[in-house]
Amino acid sequence: MPLKFDTRFDPAYGKAVTVAPDVQRLTARNPSPFTFHGTNSYLIGSETLAVIDPGPDDDAHLQALIEAIGGRPVSHIFVSHTHRDHSPLAARLKERTGAAVLGEGPHRPARPLRIGEVNPLDASADTDFVPDTALANGALVQGDGWAIRTVLTPGHAANHAAFALEGTGILFSADHVMAWATSIVAPPDGAMADYMGSLDKLIERDDRVLLPGHGGPVTKPRSFMRGLKAHRKMRERAILERICGGDRTIKEMVAAIYRDTDPRLHGAAGLSVLAHLEDLVARGLVSTGGDAAIDGIFTPAG
Length: 302
Known about the structure:
By secondary structure, the protein is an alpha/beta fold.
């Protein structure tokens, strides 16, 4: 299936939008080329609530969440991963509600930094986040009229998790799968092999709709995710073709492969190419001097 993105989305800033029975979405006003219109937070339940991804540390978004909660108790705050557009508000929302904070764990890179390597994504990491409860794959949390199961989906971030609302066919996919764009997989925070493995895990499920961390729903999850997988494989082939054609640096590859992409995203594109190259080097399809690096020289294997 050709991959078709859906960019139709009304963020309705400051308002709670009902997207399913007992599920409301509030979008933070933090638009950017990386966050689309902003980060989606979700309220689950009717009496005692759960919150999924409280969002950035933003006064207006906190106030919108408190108003939507409307005095009802909040028992749990689920955090999909520790990028600053998703997790920082958890601490302040916990102070206001007394809810327990749950997530896979503190922020960490997908691999250790190499000697002399600087993590260009440090500014986006919420290194203060520590969950009250660490969630393992398959962990089930029971609430008041709802149950949420954790589906660990590393790739975009090492501690990324999706959350399935049991009995509904709804999966909150955070940044792993979004209708409006592909997920950024950028080393050392993320890893392409992990991302592809997590994508296969979700394709094997039977969810009927995905509610992502940015933008609107994915309404045909399996076919869309197969398209995402094919897109990543196509990108991998393009990188191999550029290397076989004489490109040796990531900068050269990005200039050719992403020539129609917003230049503001070329830095992220370079990290995405690095993610593919780390995987290709590990699989013995590309050679480089030592570990794959953003400033490395790459040649065909053999």
